[in-house]
């Protein structure tokens, strides 16, 4: 695992996504789904790496905060794709806390790292973010506000994992005479 390369790929991808996501504002939620197995070139769920998870989360926390967003880290299907967030987000958005502590093979390395590195972590079942990044095909779409638009980034991989990014855009309404923002 090339730590410096992963940090650079991750930083470049996040910065590009945030610049593209023009409807997202400070205070919004950035959703991360990540398979560290895929980052290492293995099949999802077959080689979880706490070292990779810790590296990814420690890189993301200051970066996401610098742009004024809150990070929500999705766990795997073994914890029903629940998300680790800061307690302040749960309280602000009136989210319901669920009783689970992520583990390496029940939640995944990134959700464990978020639980360890956040100031006051809690786990919630549902969230609605305005932008997000999926590293390794973990399927974060259920946690991104509608309407979702895929964002094709210059960075297509982090480590060996495919990167898919989503951003929210407001619904286009009206007939043929309606005008819309670009």
Tell me what you see in this structure.
This protein has 182 residues and is an alpha+beta fold. The protein has one domain (3-168): Rossmann fold (3-Layer(aba) Sandwich), CATH 3.40.50.10360. It contains five helices and eight strands; from the N terminus they run H-E-H-H-E-E-H-H-E-E-E-E-E. Strands 1, 2, 3, 4, 5, 6, 7 and 8 form an eight-stranded mixed β-sheet that branches. Helix 1 packs parallel to helix 3 and helix 3 packs across helix 5. The protein is globular, with a radius of gyration of 16 Å. The chain starts with a helix and ends in a 14-residue tail after the last strand. 43% of the residues are buried.
